[in-house]
Amino acid sequence: MIQRDQGDLPGARASMERAIAIDQKHFAPDHPNFATSYSNLATIQCNQGDLPGARASMERAIAIDRKHFAPDHPDFANAYSNLAMIQHDQGDVKGARSSIEQAITIAEKHLGADHPNLATLHSNLAMIQQDQRDLPGARASMERAIAIQQKHFAPDHPAFATAYSNLATIQLDQRDLPGARASLERAIAIQQKHFAPDHPSFAISYNILANICHAEGDPAAAGILFKKALAILLQHFDENHPHVKAMRASMKALRIAP
Question: 174, 135 in Cβ contact below 8 A?
């Protein structure tokens, strides 16, 4: 875990696999220790981009836990949540939704419906629903996440910037342009209280706002915002970074000169 946090993913993976190899000499293959080990390995593999390996490790961890715990044991909430994100990144949106809904059901049973952890789970569900084009469901889930956060955090907490930004993208997909603009402007106002003007978060916000302006029929304003977002990204990333490539692709699709 230290190596992972340092960004040394190959070293982290080698250490985690070494730990598993040692345990295999002393414990049965379905010993509870292996569930934790395979879960940690899955996190490292996911960070490496090895999604098939991460999914296999996470499913192995869950299979071991099932031999020792009841199906609604609280540990499964985190396990299914992690599995859902791996499935989502693999493009298995149907599997991801099933997993995250299982996580929510278990978490609500043990933590209560308004626990802060549920805000994250509902936000993740919203993302998955949006990818499924279940936009009413996605909006309801995102608004549920915000409602939970409002019970625990101050109105200008940084978490709300992400939440309102995510809500804005859903509203944009729904063609609720006034709602999307209001949510996004709220996100930007919160960001301005916490981040420097060239923080990468603003690039994401300006990108979304640019798309809103374009949908509103104001390509000139959209162009200015896209260029502003791109300039911020280029302060932090090189041309080959996925965020930069995605931004340039969006601008090209909308025929906005770089």
Answer: yes
